[in-house]
Specification:
The structure holds three protein chains of three kinds. By secondary structure, chain A is α+β, with helices and mostly antiparallel strands. Chain A has helices at 18-27, 62-66, 92-96, 132-138, 150-154, 165-179, 188-192; strands at residues 4-8, 36-41, 49-54, 72-74, 80-82, 160-164. By secondary structure, chain B is mainly alpha-helical. Classes of the chains: A alpha+beta, B mainly alpha, C mainly alpha.
Chain lengths: 198, 66, 340
């Protein structure tokens, strides 16, 4: 099986937020919850770069480790998913997540924040594939249809790459060789404890 | 024993009161992270609804796209 | 003059263009920028940003400040603490104190009412109903809070395999509600106990003598003590100190990101959990000595009235004080009536 990863080529990202919009629409993500976001570094200064960030589906995922109710599981494709039936909304996964991926329907007190929501790599959840309940809780399941996450598919500059880690790393390496520069695979060291040598 | 029962009752009563007060101040993400920018629909109304249970009637009663 | 100026300008432009030609020729070659610069040298990299700040953040168009954080590797450190250290620290603290108490019980046994003097059988009011109310309100809250708190650490390890994930999820949800809501009566109880018992818990010279004499725990005799001996004062200050620390960190966590950022939240959680397990260990010792550890001690919080013989040997100076007070009250004709 593939080891699914995300890679954002910051030298290509133009902060168009198409990935954010695609994700919002595909999964009917409510207002105030962002499974994916674009963060601009050095905004308005020389060397400005934008990075599209969502759940990176980490190796030895910190969220899964710290969860007090073990509601996370990793699929055969190394996608980190969780069960909203077991989640208690404690927010520990947000503290552990290096990428700020977990989101909660309510923001106030810790006691009743609702079930955590995060990027599913367009892979749904523990419910039966393509079921209504799966869609309502986790959004659509494109991976089961043989499709990759919509954010990467919709990326206007193909900055955001999704797919098997080795394949996207290869694509990125070729790009860097071709154009002669690259700012690296953002977050890979923290998420996968490895990075792409460029 | 009477004092013990009273103390437990008081603890429960205070906890219930605290729960009401805390939930009174609870905010939905769409309220907390909203701007005055342009909106095409009422925040919180979409397919899954603000509570993520498929109930889309809250908070305004407007259906998505209606 | 004007013509000369124009000529000069033309020469300047021509020179500049001539210089630019080789650079433009390079545009066709892969991997080189037309200006001859390497954009990688200018662009920000993760490595460079991590040298400046421990975490990387920028600007987002979302009105949620937290989402402006791009990468915070401290999450991995938090993971290492919560999953690597905390279960061990918590397990050793709780099981360790239980082991120590068992060993103490086996060695010392139950501390008995060893000198049944002439006063044994008579009763004296030690804690009035309000004091007992505050104590038991805090105590019941503490038990639920500690169990639901330990559930965050050990529930998935011990309870989840037994009852299954769904049942455990539901139970944990209710445990979380109880943890959050019972925290308030707990905090109130701590505040009441602080006010009611502060005056009897100021450390003094007598406490040092009590400790030197072994406090009646190790030796056989009973050193002098007022209303609270040094050991009880330690428990009082532990409850007040840890209670305050747990309250502050707890309230900070109850309203996530209201006062601090992500790293602050992580540190708060670490403090809350560490103090929590030590607090539980301390209270286990308190429960031991107040119940099976010492004969006659439970009555103080049970019915509020203790055996006069027990009181005279354990809190001799306090009994004298109380009797002197009662005697003076009796002279006025209104004998102090126990509240219950």
């Amino acid at each position: 099986m593939a080891r699914m990863k995300f890679l954002c080529d910051a030298d290509r990202c133009i902060e168009c937020n198409a990935c954010v919009t695609a994700c919002k629409n595909e999964h009917e993500v409510p207002w105030g919850i962002n499974r994916r976001r674009v963060v601009t570094l050095n905004d308005g200064k020389p060397g400005e770069r934008s990075v599209s960030m969502a759940c990176m589906h980490c190796t030895d995922a910190p969220c899964a480790a710290v969860c007090p109710v073990n509601c996370f599981y990793t699929t055969a494709d190394a996608v980190v998913l969780h069960s909203k039936d077991i989640c208690i909304g404690c927010g520990y996964c947000f503290y552990a997540c290096p990428f700020g991926a977990p989101q909660y329907p309510k923001v106030g007190n810790f006691g009743s924040r609702g079930k955590m929501d995060k990027c599913t790599y367009c892979a749904g959840g523990p419910e039966a594939d393509f079921s209504t309940i799966e869609y309502e809780k986790y959004g659509s399941n494109r991976l089961a249809e043989g499709k990759l996450p919509l954010c990467a598919e919709m990326c206007s500059t193909k900055a955001l790459l999704a797919g098997d880690g080795e394949m996207i790393a290869q694509i990125y390496k070729e790009r860097v060789v071709k154009r002669g520069y690259g700012s690296g695979a953002w977050g890979w060291k923290t998420a996968y404890r490895e990075t792409i040598a460029i | 024993m009477k004092v013990f029962v009273m103390s437990v009752a008081a603890a429960v009563a205070l906890a219930v009161a605290a729960s009401f007060l805390l939930n009174e101040n609870q905010k939905f993400a769409y309220e907390a992270f909203a701007t005055s920018g342009a909106r095409v629909s009422e925040p919180g109304t979409n397919l899954v609804g603000p509570k993520w249970n498929g109930e889309t009637t809250e908070p305004s009663g407007k259906k998505h796209g209606a | 003059m004007r013509r000369g100026m124009t000529l000069f300008r033309t020469i300047v432009v021509a020179t500049a263009l001539a210089a630019a030609v080789p650079a433009m020729a390079q545009q066709t070659r892969d991997g080189l920028n037309p200006t001859g610069q390497n954009p990688t040298a200018d662009s920000v990299t993760e490595e460079f940003l991590f040298k400046q700040e421990p975490k990387i953040g920028g600007r987002v168009s979302i009105p949620d400040g937290k989402s402006a954080n791009l990468i915070q590797p401290q999450g991995r450190e938090y993971q290492a603490f919560r999953e690597g250290w905390l279960p061990w620290i918590g397990g050793i603290a709780v099981l360790g104190i239980l082991g120590l108490l068992t060993a103490f019980f086996l060695l010392r046994g139950r501390i008995a009412l060893d000198d049944p003097g002439p006063d044994t059988g008579k009763k004296i009011l030690r804690f009035n109903s309000f004091e007992r109310f505050a104590h038991w309100m805090t105590a019941t809250c503490f038990i639920i809070l500690s169990l639901s708190g330990l559930n965050y650490i050990f529930g998935k390890r011990l309870l989840m395999p037994l009852i299954g994930p769904e049942a455990f999820g539901t139970l944990s949800q209710w445990a979380k509600y109880s943890h959050l809501y019972l925290a308030w009566p707990f905090m109130l109880g701590i505040a009441i106990m602080l006010i009611v018992w502060l005056k009897d818990n100021i450390p003094e010279k007598l406490d040092w003598e009590w400790i030197k004499a072994g406090g009646g725990l190790i030796g056989r005799g009973h050193p002098h003590a007022k209303r609270f001996n040094a050991g009880q004062k330690v428990v009082f200050w532990m409850v007040v100190g840890f209670g305050a620390a747990m309250s502050v960190t707890g309230v900070v966590m109850m309203f996530p990101f209201a006062v601090t950022d992500i790293n602050g939240m992580q540190v708060t959680q670490v403090i809350h959990s560490l103090i929590g397990v030590v607090f539980i260990a301390g209270i286990l010792a308190h429960i031991y000595i107040g119940s099976i550890g010492m004969e006659g001690a439970y009555d103080a919080m049970g019915s509020g009235k203790v055996d006069l013989g027990w009181a005279k040997s354990h809190h001799d100076l306090w009994v004298e004080e109380q009797q002197a007070k009662n005697a003076s009250v009796a002279q006025l004709g209104t004998r102090q009536v126990p509240a219950e």
